[in-house]
Each structure stands twice: as C-alpha cells, then as structure tokens.
Amino acid sequence: MGNNEEKLNRGFGLSASLALVVGTIIGSGIFFKQGSVLASAGSTTSAMMAWIAGGILTLASGISVAEIGSQMDQTGGIYIYIEKIYGKIWGFLAGWMQVIFYGPAMMSSIAAYFGILFVDLFGLSKTFAIPAAIIGLSFVGIINSVPNRFSAGFQILTTTIKMLPIIALIIFGLFFGQHDAIGQTVSGITGGQGGFGVAILATLFAYDGWVTLANISGEIKNPQKVLPKAIVFGILIVIVAYVGVSFGVYQSLSANNIVKFGQNTTLYMATNAFGVIGGRLLSVAVLISLLGTLNGKVVSFPRVLFAMANDGLFPFAQQFSKINMRSRTPNKAIWFMISLGILMIIFTNPDRLTDIAIFTTFLFYILVFIGVFKLRKQDPLGERRGFSMPLYPWLPLLAIGGSLYVEISEILHDLSGVAISIVIVAIGYPVYKFLSRRTDNN
C-alpha cells in the first residue's frame, strides 16, 4: 500500500462519526418510501414489521462490520476487509462495485430526490429538477474539497436539523393521530404483490448508509474504539426514529391514502398536522436532510477509490491517490465520483439504480459477515479485536440469513436487475487482471 493515507487528517471524533452514521442513513427514505413499503407489504402491520425487520437486519449487519472494522483501521472499508480476508481479486471487485456503481448510484438517487423536492417547494418547472440535483451534489462536493472539519461540522449540523421534523411527526402521530390504521389492509389498488421480502428491500434503501463510516477509518480518531460505538448507537437511533415515524404515519392516515400519496405521504401528513407553513418547513428540513445524507456519501465513497488507487488498483491510480495538501482530502477521487453521479442523474432512473445497487452490495456484505467467522477462527482469544460483538455467532448468522432472504426475493422479482448487477461486477475482473499485470511489471 502507498503512503498517501498517512497524509489524511483524522478529523472525525465520536460526535462527528455518530452524526455521519445517523445523518447518512436518515435522508429521503423515511419520508419517501412509506407508500412503496406499504404497497409491497399489503398491510400496515406487515409494513411495520418490514421496517422493524430491516432495522434488525441492519443492526446485525452493522455490529458484524463493527467487529471487523475494529481490527482493520485503514481507509477503504469493505474493500479492505474483503481483500484481507479473501484476497486481492475479491477486494478489488468489492471496491469496483462501490466506486463504479453503488456509490454514484446512491449519490445520484439522493440528489435526484433533492431536485424533485426543491422544484416542488419553490413551484418551479419540473425541467429544473435535474439542474437542481446537480447543483446540490456539486455544493456538497465543494464542502468536501476543503479540510474535513468542515464536512464533519456540516454533518453534525444537518443531522441535528433533520431530527426535528422526525420528532415532530412522531409526537403528532402518537398524540393527535385520528385514523389508527394499524392492522389495515391495502385495498382497491394494484399493489401488494411484491411481498414481505420486497418490502424489506424497500426499507433497506432507507437504512442504507451505516457502512459509510468504515470507508473513512483513516480519518477517524481512535477508529478501533470510535467506529464500533458510532455504528451500533447510530443504527439504534435510526431504528427508533424510523419505527416511530412509521407508527405516526399509520396513526394519521388510512392505509389506502398512504399508498395513494406515495412519495408525498409525510408531506401531506405534515401539512394536515401543522398547516401549509408546517408542510413547507418539513420540506425545507428534508432538503437539508438530503444534503446531509449526500455529504455522508461524498465523504465516504471516494475514500474507497482513494484506497484502491493508493494500492495501484484503479485506472489513473497516480491521480486518484493524490491528497490535496491544503485540505488533506482526496479531491480528484471526490470529483470523479461526483461526475459519475451527475451522469447517472442525467441519463438514468436513479430510483431504479438504487434497488439494483442494494442487491449488488449485499452480495459483498454476505462475504464480510462470513469473514467474521474466519477472523474469529484465526484469533480465538480476540487479541486483535478492539470490539467483540455480543450474541456471537447469532448476530452474523442473522445478518447472513436476512441478506440471503432479501437476495432471493430480489432474484424472484427482478431477475433483469440482478443480471445487470452481476455483469457490472464481472466487468471488474478483466480490469483487475490488466491493472495487476501492469503493477507487477512496474
């Protein structure tokens, strides 16, 4: 590995790391996915169980990754974990998937939601949605091109702001909701065919983001201790928030109306609860929330590209492994991935990409969860572990089982998307062979 990682600034303490986990997970999903989760689940009871199941799966997954992360403090996250456990080719394919597809797809999807909500809030033509999305993503890129204390501070600020409407929606639903839709079945619409597995898959977009902290281990103060705490407590906070908001929505609207309003469900609820001004304030808070989530993605995913380039395992590695000496951030890696995200915003359907991206990344998550057992076997006394999970081996087994359940569900309902994701990962193999030969020759 190159020595450029030593030039990174360890500017993320526990507060900023916790804010990164919570702020990256809580973005658009909890506000925009209520309708789609309910439509797939078929009833509010099943939908609530899907949110809880998605949270438990995420928590088991996060705790498993936290144990591995406490043993490996290099920048790169899953790319590093899989490389060290299974070898360079598998590590490269995991990194390739995140850099070429998963990371940009998530950036583009969140930015696209930002653009849609922005033009709706200000009554602009829908033709401005894409430019607004690009401007929002570029703004976050600029914040990440300066010393990381600014991106860390921005994450804490946006996370604090985004919790306010969540708390308000929970309180309103608990004390003032009048519909009590718990137990209602969706009727009179086309929906419910996706099933419980697809409903869980929809929640996983809302829960996505817990792994981003692992990608920036080289910029976390005392990562062996801070990373596990931030991941575990961050996911717990999000589960409480998501289940609380879902309960509030089900208390305030009927099941059919939730599906009918779709992405506008929480906006409609907030407008009913707090008037037009309340609805607008929620929209502003969601816009800020989306910028915070984007910030987490832009902080995180370019570090995977940086780590791969630092190992000489990416085209133009010498450029992407460079650190800006003034900001001590990998700016070329950041702007390359932002550019990919912008292209996806312009030429693709980002919402479709996220479903495919969730499938591909869970393939590699499963390898990481299996890696917990391999590392335990190599180090039975835990001398290298900064964090040892409770309930071993049940939590990694739950993470593996839940992930397989979701993957099988996706295969049954979206075989074309699965095929696309496999092709994208497979393209990385000849790229790796070419790059590794060139590295060996040098």
From TrEMBL:
Would I find Transmembrane among this entry's keywords?
yes
Alphabetized, the UniProt keywords read: Membrane, Transmembrane, Transmembrane helix
Q: Which GO terms describe its molecular function?
A: L-amino acid transmembrane transporter activity
Which segments cross the bilayer?
Answer: 12-32, 48-68, 89-116, 128-147, 154-176, 196-218, 230-253, 273-294, 333-350, 356-375, 387-405, 411-432
Source superkingdom: Bacteria
Per UniProt, subcellular location reads as: Membrane
Q: Name one GO cellular component term.
A: membrane
Topological relation to the membrane, as annotated? Multi-pass membrane protein
Family annotation (Pfam families):
AA_permease_2
What's the protein called, per UniProt?
APC family permease
Species source reads Leuconostoc litchii
Q: What is the lineage of its organism?
A: Bacteria, Bacillati, Bacillota, Bacilli, Lactobacillales
